[in-house]
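Ticket closed. Logging final result for MFS transporter.
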Amino acid sequence: MPVSEPKPSAARSRTWRVAGVLLLIGIEALLFGYSYPFFSLALEKKGIATWLIGLNASIAGAGILIFGPFVPWLIDRMGLRLLVAAQFALSLASFAAIFAFDNIAVWFVARFVMGTCFAALWTTTEIWLNGVVDDKNRGRIVGASGTLYAACQFMGPLLLSGTGSTGSLPLVVAMVPLAIGVAVALSIRSAVGEVDDEEESGDVHTLRMSLTLAGSLIAAAFLTGIGETAMQSLLPLYGLAHGLNDSGASRLVAVFSLGEAVLIVALGWFADRHGRRLTLIGCAGIAVVSTLAFPFVMDKAFLLEPVVFIAGGTVSGLYTLGIVLIGQDFRGQRLAVVSTGFAMAYSAGSVIGSTPIGFLMDLFGAEALPITVAAGFMALLIFLLRPGQKKAAEVSLE
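Final structure:
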């Protein structure tokens, strides 16, 4: 019958929108993992001072803090499709500029532009994915996107090991997936009436409840940024302080990162089945318990890695569950504003994270790491369990 013809086509179109955004996330993660070691190694080969190489990395990481406030405005003016395509195109142009003008000033300007685009892509592709998935499978798909991101980021350095860091080959190899990203972004077209085109009502009460809920999510992003960065950078020192050798201390970070990559899929599935706010609270509670357990399992090999694995998954899971809840509760411009604030809070936590906790470790010893991280998540847990916060969440979920 004629009326049934459009249904398979509509389903295929929706499937491509989700798959296309996931492909963009994979490309972004691949180039993110590729660019950090590439710039460090390439600049080292040029005889650049180590502090300048560090500065080059820092200006890349600061991008979202500078550009973030403008993201919602740009989404409103350009739309996600054109904005994401432009970010891939600017990243492509940055590599092309290095290829054409092998000058140190160009390397720094290109790194800043590229770092800003990658950071903004991280935010805008999350917003886009939240807009095109259906709410029933939101947790599963957003969780899977986190695992996809981790896997593709892991592949970046492997790709660089094949291309090397000198000559034109690594630049050309980087430009190819970025060009594909431009083409894919432009090919994803919104359908009228789908989730990514919905607008929020202007009800003040709903807005107030939404902002109340968003406050806890932004706090979760900030604390996750602190905890995740501190663990990634200081966990090796914690292992050394407990008598592990360099290999064993580095392995702690690998196990922590593996937990980040694997457990977020399970957390997304659990959130879809058993409630997202409940999962967020449970995740915060497990993050507290697992990090506090570190001192008690460091001398027990059969317990150490499982505890570190669980800590990695739950600490990272708080970020993923926050993204899921934002997609569930916000639409249109509010989705862009809250998602951008969420990403900026995480980035701010990442920038702040290691320095004060490292200072506390110098003052009070290695146990300051798990205790400080656990204290932050305990504060979040208490905030989430407040009666007023629970009521606000329930109203926003109706």
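The two ends are 38 Å apart (CA to CA). No further action required.
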